[in-house]
Amino acid sequence: MRGRGVVLMANSILNSSELHAAVAALIDASRAVGYRGGYLECAQHVEEALGQEFDVNHCSVTDQADVTLARARRCMTIYHRM
């Protein structure tokens, strides 16, 4: 009985919708950060090849990464409060 209770408790934690939301937010954030890193690396190579500096601060890829990271932080904050 004691061992079974621990299993049930672990299953309820692992199957919670809050955990699923937190994991999904982290996956989205890691994908967006990866795109951002790839974009910035590519821009650096183009800058080196052309000798011209690019303004990457106003790019939708970098903006999306910032928004997605903020969403993941909010989701993780909510999950940790539970």
Quickly describe the structure.
The protein has 82 residues and is an all-alpha fold. 84% of the residues lie in helices and 0% in strands.
Protein described:
By secondary structure, the protein is mainly α. Helix content is 84%, strand content 0%. α2 runs antiparallel to α3 (60-81). It is elongated and about 65 Å long. The relative contact order is 0.15.
Task: Please supply descriptive tags for the structure shown above.
82 residues, elongated, mainly alpha
Topology:
Elements: H1 2-14, H2 17-50, H3 60-81
Helix pairs in contact: 2-3
Helix content: over 70%
- Radius of gyration over C-alpha positions, nearest whole angstrom: 20 Å
Shape: elongated
Q: Tally the helices: what do you get? A: 3
